[in-house]
Please model this.
Amino acid sequence: MAEEEQAAEPEEEPESEDNESDGDEKKRKHYLKERDAHIDAARESSRTFDKAVLTFAAAVFGFSIAFLKDVAPHPAVATLKWLGLAWGLFACSLLLILLSFLFSHRACMFEVECADNSYIDPNYKREKNPWSRWTDRCNFACVICLFLGLGAWSCFAFENLGQESKSVSKVEPTPLKEGYVPPPPAKPQQQAPPLPPPL
Model:
């Protein structure tokens, strides 16, 4: 009986190994699924961020032009520096967000190339992605330029609104004559009666 029990014990080891391998496989599948979900979320948030920044920068740039046209058509000369600075920063923010699109594409292509090299050569040493760093720098610089431009435009708007209110208050209304009545029409002069004819 003891020999039969000893012979039966080794048969249980493959089942435990299979259970461990099944557990590792489930854990790996769960890890890959969660990793893919995080990658999709990061991709969607990056796409939403780019669209939001691009829309906001274009909207503020257009609103500043409308403000200059309708509210302050004759701005003070001293405030034009704020307007020029604001427009320059808005243009820089739009340029940076467009560059971030380009750098993001280059970063993805770099990752594809690294994956191909790792698959071909197991000893391939993976390099850092420089395009990814440039994408992050462009995104941060874009936000900074956008908020600085918004601050410069706010200074321009507040100073011109203050000057508009002062100019309106200085205008004196034309005095109106209350109770003015036009003079009555002139009465016709009475003619003297004709003289009698001489005798």
The chain is about 75% helix and 0% strand.
